[in-house]
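Private note to self, pasted from the team thread so I don't lose it. Backbone tokens:
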């Protein structure tokens, strides 16, 4: 069952009922100011950091779900309704929500009155513009009122939902004309403020939540001022400040009126905070006036429909350009839709927000993840390489000089989060992978010389190359008894906590250190991760390639020897006969072996081991992939492990705390499905690669939206696995490494157009039924128009490759570097 449809010509998903199985959201904003907006206009806004600069308030896990956001209420002759149906939930005569690239349009119609609201954050602008077009489509004149509503968060979202004894007494606002300013704490220690304005005269306002609602026992679905058809002109004094504009409107039949609201954020320099000192104002009792110059300038930028149209057009061309860098034309519309539009769009969102703010991530739990952000770059780097470069430097600057990493950092302060700490064994390797991906995309070898400090030596002169070096050797220097990398606190799978042994409620599996390992430095020196071993052998060659390019042959050979040794150790101690083990636990026992009672096979190490060709000569690669198909493949994707754990295994930690089929305990963890897709494509089994790709790609799950529940245009982190009661149900949509990795899987492995240090590799691995396909790829300033022909209906194998008519050896198109368009023709066979 579907709840809408894709409108590919406009790059939109069109939702035609407000009652989706879960709030289906979109993201507005790309740089500083961000908003989350659901199909009923729920959500919130923040500047840069969803925890430290939250602008509007949002209550997670509330009943009912998704109450609160920015709402418009219309009172038409006593009938109160919202264009997005919620929160009043008056049945609408017509409803539609269009989520597009950086904007959302919500339309509602009731009793002949139509309201169309376009929400977007313009480029280089710290505010959300909301253009409301009201049209009387009836046959008689209409007199009605419209109320806006935004509830201010008191900036620090964590403090806002815990520190009530203070926060109920700090709220402050200032009102000037049609603009309501949120100035809580501004006088004291904050230099930022927010405002909500409308480009017309208003008939009243409310800034106190309780006054707007009329009673502390009312919810957003029942505001008394709206019902009464008149604002109360309340002035917030502590408690919960809001911003609501009230306006009376009369429309003749056929007549329209446009109102433009702006929810903005601005910062003032310390010495320009105040417009003036003034004698204590009787209403506000404040002895100061906010310097509003920045707000005035912001308001001036979007206060007419023409300016709004220009802002929308700028946004549209920005996305047109971003999406023109990798464009595909395959025989499958759903592939085209994912690659050309939605997967790339999601990659931008994950790049911007890491795992911080979604409908499943509260925005207060985590900032940017070290491993997360590095992986996000893999799917994003071709879009805006300059931003990827900046991000790489930010991330690397949180690294320690021994190669260890803070697991997370706050985007506002760019400092590692000490409360989470480090010792996640895989973290450093993702840094090598993302820097290599950046160089392969851009050819900017200069990044290796960029000055990048270490967290524990902030003033020191260090280069990015040194960061790669300590990352590589952080693995090599931390090996366990089998010569495999120590698992430490956890590897990619946060929920395999081999040094935790927790038997006390409330201990965080991921940050708790069992005292028995304290003396050893916080984690077992026995537990080893086969996943990190395979990730090392897969990623290490990029480091070697970099050293070779720099002419450091000795260092390259030394690093290569470590990779070879790791491959040998892995084959000797971690090949279980039909697949690779997952780990050795702190007791030195095998995890993920046919010998285990549960959790006999895990997905994570397998794809990287296959692509590293570990044991290829003995057929380990194909055996492994066949085992995955046999034990992990099911209707909705590949489960993470099998059989699911049914007991708590204290030696494994969090993974065995989930009911079977959810999350890391045998859920379909879509992120790692991509690694298998890549591996299947790598060995040339294009059908299998495509089968796995299409099982989880959102455009393909659209038809079963009632089971899948989350948005059919973006990936979620997890789908209930075959052991789950809710088999096939998606969760944790939007912010997941799945976005970047599936972009890599489809664009670089299946479609096979992959940047390398010295050119563009074209080596597809596709379903044999395809006659061929086309890719347009902008790469290092040139345009490559690639046409792949598949006359023999094979999955993989480049028989002939020509560039501008000239045949070349191998399948790497050299960089022309002339800024021109080049025709690449590839014949498979
Ligand atoms: C959990 C992961 C989860 C992540 C997202 C981690 O603490 O272990 O499974 O994906 O948080 O919230
Ligand atoms: C989500 C986290 O963001 C990611 O870093 C981790 O690898 C997966 N969960 C698996 O546990």
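Design output:
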């Amino acid at each position: 069952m579907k709840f809408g449809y894709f409108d590919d010509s406009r790059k939109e998903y069109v939702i035609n009922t407000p009652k989706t199985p879960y709030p289906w959201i979109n993201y507005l904003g790309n740089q500083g100011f961000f908003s989350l907006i659901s199909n009923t206009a729920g959500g919130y806004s923040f500047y840069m950091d969803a925890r430290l600069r939250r602008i509007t308030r949002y209550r997670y896990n509330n009943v009912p779900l998704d109450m609160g956001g920015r709402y418009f209420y219309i009172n038409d002759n006593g009938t109160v309704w919202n264009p997005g149906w919620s929160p009043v939930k008056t049945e609408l005569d017509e409803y539609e929500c269009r989520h597009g690239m950086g904007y959302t349009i919500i339309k509602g119609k009731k009793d002949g009155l139509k309201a169309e609201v376009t929400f977007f954050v313009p480029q280089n602008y710290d505010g959300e513009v909301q253009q409301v077009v009201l049209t009387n489509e009836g046959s008689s004149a209409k007199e009605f009122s419209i109320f806006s509503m935004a509830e201010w968060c008191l900036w620090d979202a964590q403090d806002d939902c815990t520190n009530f004894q203070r926060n109920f007494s700090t709220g402050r606002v200032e009102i000037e004309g049609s603009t309501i300013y949120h100035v809580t704490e501004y006088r004291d220690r904050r230099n930022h403020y927010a405002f909500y304005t409308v480009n017309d005269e208003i008939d009243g306002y409310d800034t106190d939540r309780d006054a707007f609602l009329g009673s502390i026992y009312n919810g957003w679905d029942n505001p008394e001022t709206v019902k009464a058809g008149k604002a109360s002109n309340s002035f917030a004094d502590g408690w919960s400040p809001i911003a609501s504009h009230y306006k009376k409107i009369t429309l003749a039949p056929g007549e329209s009126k446009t109102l433009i609201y702006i929810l903005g954020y601005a910062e003032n320099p310390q010495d320009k905070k105040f417009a003036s000192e003034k004698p204590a104002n009787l209403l506000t009792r404040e002895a100061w006036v906010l310097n509003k110059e920045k707000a005035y300038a912001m308001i001036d930028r979007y206060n007419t429909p023409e300016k709004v149209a220009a802002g929308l057009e700028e946004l549209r061309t920005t996305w047109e350009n971003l999406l023109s860098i990798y464009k595909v034309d395959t025989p499958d519309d759903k592939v085209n839709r994912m690659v050309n539009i939605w997967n790339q769009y999601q990659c931008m969102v994950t790049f911007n927000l890491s795992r911080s703010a979604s409908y499943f991530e509260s925005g207060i739990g985590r900032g940017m993840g070290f491993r997360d952000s590095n992986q996000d770059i893999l799917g994003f780097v071709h879009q805006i390489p300059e931003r990827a470069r900046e991000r790489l430097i930010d991330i690397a600057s949180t690294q320690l000089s021994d190669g260890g990493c803070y697991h997370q950092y706050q985007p506002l302060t760019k400092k590692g989060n000490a409360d989470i700490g480090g010792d996640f064994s895989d973290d450093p390797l993702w840094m090598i992978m993302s820097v290599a991906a950046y160089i392969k995309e851009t050819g900017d070898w200069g990044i290796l010389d960029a000055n990048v400090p270490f967290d524990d030596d902030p003033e020191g002169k260090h280069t990015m190359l040194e960061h790669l070096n300590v990352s590589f050797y952080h693995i090599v220097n931390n090996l366990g008894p089998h010569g495999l990398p120590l698992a430490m606190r956890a590897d990619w799978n946060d929920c395999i906590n081999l040094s935790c042994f927790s038997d006390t409620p409330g201990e965080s599996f991921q940050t708790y250190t069992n005292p028995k390992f304290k003396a050893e430095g916080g984690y077992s020196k026995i537990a080893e991760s086969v996943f990190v071993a395979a990730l090392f052998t897969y990623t290490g060659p990029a480091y070697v390639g970099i050293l070779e390019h720099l002419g450091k042959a000795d260092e390259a050979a030394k690093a290569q020897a470590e990779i070879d040794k790791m491959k040998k150790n892995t084959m000797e101690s971690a090949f279980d006969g039909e697949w690779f083990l997952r780990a050795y636990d702190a007791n030195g026992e095998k995890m993920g072996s046919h010998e285990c009672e549960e959790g006999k096979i895990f997905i994570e190490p397998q794809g990287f081991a296959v692509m590293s060709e570990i044991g290829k000569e003995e057929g380990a690669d194909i055996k492994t992939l066949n085992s995955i198909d046999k034990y992990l493949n099911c209707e909705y994707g590949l489960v993470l492990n099998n059989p699911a754990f049914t007991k708590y295994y204290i030696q494994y930690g969090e993974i065995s705390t989930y009911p079977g089929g959810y999350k890391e305990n045998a859920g379909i963890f879509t992120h790692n499905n991509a690694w298998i897709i890549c591996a299947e494509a790598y060995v040339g089994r294009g059908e299998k690669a495509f089968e796995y790709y299409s099982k989880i790609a959102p455009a393909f799950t659209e038809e079963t939206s009632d089971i899948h529940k989350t948005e059919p245009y973006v990936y979620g982190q997890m789908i209930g696995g075959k052991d789950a009661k809710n088999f096939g149900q998606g969760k944790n949509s939007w912010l997941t490494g799945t976005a970047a990795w599936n972009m890599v899987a489809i664009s670089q492995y299946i479609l096979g157009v992959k940047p390398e240090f010295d050119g563009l590799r074209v080596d597809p691995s596709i379903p044999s039924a395809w006659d061929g396909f086309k890719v347009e790829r902008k790469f290092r300033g040139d345009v490559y128009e690639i046409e792949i022909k598949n006359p023999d209906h094979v999955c993989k194998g480049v028989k002939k490759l020509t560039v501008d008519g000239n045949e070349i050896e191998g399948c790497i198109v050299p960089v022309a570097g002339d800024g021109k368009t080049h025709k690449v023709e590839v014949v498979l066979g």
